[in-house]
UniProtKB/TrEMBL annotation:
It is an enzyme of class 2 (transferase). This is deoxyguanosine kinase. Its EC number is 2.7.1.113. It comes from Petromyzon marinus. The gene is LOC116944933. The active site is at residue 155. Pfam families: dNK.
Length: 291
């Protein structure tokens, strides 16, 4: 701005000498002031826009199988209808339908229930399921219908897909070394390319002991989960702890390495406890205000 003021000052004397009867030119500082005002307005508008965008966060609810994620999602849908709550796409996993190829051929029968196949025969279907799970989550995260003016809450994320479930399957031998390398390569490349479009502002970790998860799993009695035992739940619990609490998991993308985490005690069943539900939601709202 000093250069602009200087330029106006130099042109003023020439104008006055050529037209002595003309009305005096405006003081040079007025043009500079006007330009400053315009810049300040633009800066203020940009700042206000950034503040508005930061007010509405995208978070995920993470945790073990049967830790209470689905229950919390239902509670949020009921008590915070102005939020955009996205449940885990179980139907997409239980009934595989392609965007271009359509449904599975009838002769393949149960092959369309990829979740059931993964749990029933992990070595055969682990890589396939993790691929489909990641793609389905990315479709959801990139959906144009997501309202930018509301908090968005996802049930799990592409990050837990990799650092908890896929990593655990590889460790247990259900995903071989080649499949694990291929999975990490394309998943990491996609996240790098999509970057901010799939970035989370925070994660809520529903922390429950594996024994509590096993008891709830038996009560809900999902057919696909009948082969899941305490050993597998314990392995997943340790993965969540390393990733979200101890932060010892080596992660390869800033979206998951620097993301703030809220840890909630989910050992107590809150499905029919309205007081506990309100307490959990209050903690989540405080977390959203701080991140």
């Amino acid at each position: 701005m000093p250069a602009e003021s200087s330029s106006v000052s130099q042109s003023t004397p020439t104008s006055s000498s050529s037209s002595s009867s003309s009305s005096p030119s405006p003081p040079p500082h007025r043009l500079a002031d006007l330009r400053w005002s315009t810049a300040e307005v633009r800066m203020a508008e940009t700042s206000d826009s950034s503040v508005r965008q930061r007010c509405f966060k995208k978070i995920s609810v993470e945790g073990n199988i049967a830790c209470g994620k689905s229950t919390l999602v239902k509670v949020l849908q009921k008590l915070r209808p102005n939020w955009h709550v996205v449940p885990e796409p179980l139907e997409k996993w239980q009934n595989v339908v392609g965007r271009e190829s359509g449904s599975m051929p009838a002769e393949m029968g149960a092959a369309s229930n990829l979740l059931g196949l993964r749990l029933g025969d992990p070595k055969r279907w682990a890589y396939t399921f993790q691929t489909w799970a990641t793609l389905s989550r990315l479709h959801i995260a990139l959906a144009a219908s997501h309202p930018p003016e509301r908090h968005t809450v996802y049930e799990r994320s592409v990050y837990s897909n990799r650092y908890v479930f896929a990593a655990s399957l590889h460790e247990q031998g259900s995903m071989n070394d080649t499949e694990w390398v291929v999975y990490q390569e394309w998943q990491g490349w996609l996240l790098s390319e999509l970057d901010k479009r799939v970035e989370l502002d925070g994660m809520v970790y529903l922390r429950a002991e594996p024994e509590a998860c096993l008891a709830r799993m038996r009560v809900r009695n999902r057919e696909e989960e009948r082969g899941v035992g305490l050993e597998y739940l314990d392995a997943l619990h340790k993965r969540h702890e390393n990733w979200l609490v101890d932060r010892t998991t080596v992660v390869h993308h800033p979206c998951s390495s620097d993301t703030p985490v809220l840890v909630l005690d989910a050992n107590q069943d809150f499905e029919s406890n309205e007081e506990l539900q309100a307490e959990l939601i209050n903690q989540i709202e405080d977390f959203l205000d701080k991140i």
